[in-house]
Design a protein that fits this description.
The protein is α+β, with helices and mostly antiparallel strands. It is about 40% helix and about 20% strand. The chain has one domain.
């Protein structure tokens, strides 16, 4: 499993502020009729309100674009099409960025020859093993368990699939903070699990040594598109 530092995921939508009305026009003019001054203040309040509504509309628009991008990403993973999934990356990619670890001497020899970089032909050729290493099946489960439409009013989605009779359980999360969008997939110990055949000198089946693993897929959202950033993990 990969042993690197947890990324600092995040995302925040930017808002486009509407220009404010210039107020220097009152300088050098005689005092206006109170009714006119009231009308000026009313217009100013109206303009401020319009600006706030514009900011809100822009934020909602960017969030909706993000949701649409996540649905597009979901369809790419669901296709299990190695060419489409390869399109998510900019090749060649450093293996420090993706952390692909597979037990294949040919792959590892090419990796060494390329200076620890994965090329597109390598990715396509060894896709079945790479898919398992990057847990793409669990990424598919993440999108099945989490309703991305809820991001319209939330920044974090989480789901735990705890089965009483299983020592470990899967969990999935999707977080947005600033420009970063993080897909989290992992397993954890089921503390309520009761092992049937554990002696004093054996490690329990629900031990963290067996159960605790996590992988983070991190993307950058530029307001229009999602761009792959890196994959890291622990456990």
């Amino acid at each position: 499993m990969i042993n690197v530092t947890h990324p600092d995921p995040g995302y925040a939508a930017s808002a486009l502020a509407a220009p404010r009305q210039s107020q220097h026009c009152l300088v050098g003019y005689p005092v206006r009729d109170p009714a006119n001054i009231h009308n000026t203040d009313t217009r100013r309040v109206t303009n401020d309100t319009t600006q706030q509504q514009s900011d809100s509309t822009t934020t909602k628009s960017e969030r909706q674009i993000l949701i649409e991008e996540l649905k597009r990403l979901q369809s790419v993973f669901a296709s299990n099409d190695k060419e489409k999934i390869a399109d998510l990356f900019s090749f060649p990619i450093s293996n420090e960025t993706v952390g692909i670890y597979i037990d294949d001497s040919t792959f590892n020899a090419q990796l060494d020859k390329n200076g620890n970089k994965v090329t597109r032909p390598m990715f396509i050729r060894f896709y079945p093993d790479i898919s398992a290493s990057l847990q793409i099946k669990q990424i598919n489960q993440l999108f099945k368990k989490l309703d991305v439409d809820r991001l319209s009013h939330m920044d974090t989605l989480q789901h735990e699939a705890i089965i009483k009779s299983e020592p470990c359980y899967h969990y999935h999360a999707l977080t947005t903070e600033k420009e970063l969008v993080t897909l989290t997939i992992g397993t954890n110990s089921n503390e309520d699990y009761k092992s049937k055949t554990v002696s004093e000198d054996e490690i329990a089946e629900n031990s963290s040594e067996f159960c605790e693993h996590v992988l983070w897929w991190v993307f950058r959202f530029d307001g229009k598109k999602l761009h792959f950033k890196n994959i890291s993990g622990a456990g």
